[in-house]
Specification:
two-stranded antiparallel sheet
Length: 294
């Protein structure tokens, strides 16, 4: 396989992983109106769960995936029960605190996570006795899982429960006055979003075969939230388009011929300028919201 094809497949795999992350956060931030800065933490829980279980106990992928989802869901449920007793800005600060706490545990719990040394030697995914070592079958697996996540999220958001989420994101007090349990709906939404985010973590860990805390920082949470905002709130297709855009754009900028002494800084400046232009041009997201309504 040529190096160019390997590179393109690598980019596509990252795009699909971030599509799952962005769509899962869109359920929380877009449909439910809860801006969360802890999504990278649940992403990391998925990655560390599968890494620890597969490296230390030889657990297969079909076992580590549901375990990671359950662990992320339990933690998200506990966090949401507490955090959702606050509103708006206070909720954002609490999720920021959760992100910092989980990152600190990843970075300092040496006996479990090996801290900044990370966890190497994560085995490739094995399904039905076949190891997925090549990028093409791994990409196919990622696309299948992303398709399942999209299908589930689309059905959730178009269900009566999804309409409650849309209503409370528009006017929480009015929704509550209609007799809807807003608190319960938010807890369910936050928990489901975290569970779906852990799927990306599991895929990422097996793909890279090594993880450390630097992949799951607050910057990562902000990046995922940026994908949701640029793609459009309450827009699953928009999240997919924005994920591709924000992953591909930095790679395209690498091919701009610039002097080495200014190349890195200029790429950042151009990247930021393009993002500003995109937000002015597509203030409601890349894809119209009606493409995701059903």
């Amino acid at each position: 396989m040529s190096s160019v094809l390997e590179y393109l497949l690598h980019i596509l795999i990252l795009i699909v992983i971030y599509i799952i992350l962005a769509q899962s956060l869109n359920l929380v931030a877009g449909y439910s109106g809860m801006i969360s800065l802890a999504h990278a933490a649940f992403y990391g829980i998925g990655a560390y769960t599968t890494a620890l279980l597969s490296v230390n106990f030889n657990f297969p992928f079909v076992a580590t995936l549901p375990i990671a989802m359950v662990l992320s869901g339990i933690l998200a449920f506990i966090v949401s029960v507490i955090a959702l007793r606050t509103v708006d800005d206070y909720f954002i600060i609490i999720t920021l605190g959760i992100q910092v706490v989980i990152f600190s545990l990843m970075n300092n719990w040496m006996t479990l996570t090996r801290g900044p040394l990370g966890i190497p030697g994560i085995p490739p995914i094995s399904l039905f006795g076949f190891e997925i070592n090549d990028k093409i079958p791994f990409l196919i697996l990622c696309i299948i899982l992303a398709g399942i996540v999209y299908y589930l999220l689309k059905n959730i958001t178009s269900s009566p429960f999804g309409r409650v989420l849309k209503a409370l994101s528009e006017d929480e007090i009015f929704t509550q006055s209609l007799g809807k349990n807003v608190y319960q709906a938010k807890i369910i939404s936050f928990t489901l979003g975290a569970m779906f985010a852990s799927i990306s973590g599991v895929l990422y860990a097996h793909y890279i075969s090594y993880i450390d805390p630097t992949s799951f920082t607050i910057d990562e949470s902000i990046f995922i939230l940026s994908i949701v905002i640029i793609g459009g709130m309450r827009n699953l297709w928009g999240s997919a388009v924005a994920a591709a855009f924000l992953i591909i754009l930095p790679e395209l900028l690498r091919f701009l011929g610039m002097p080495n002494n200014i190349a890195a800084n200029m790429r950042q400046i151009i990247y930021g300028a393009i993002l500003i232009f995109a937000m002015f041009k597509y203030s409601k997201g890349f894809v119209a919201e009606r493409t995701n309504s059903a």
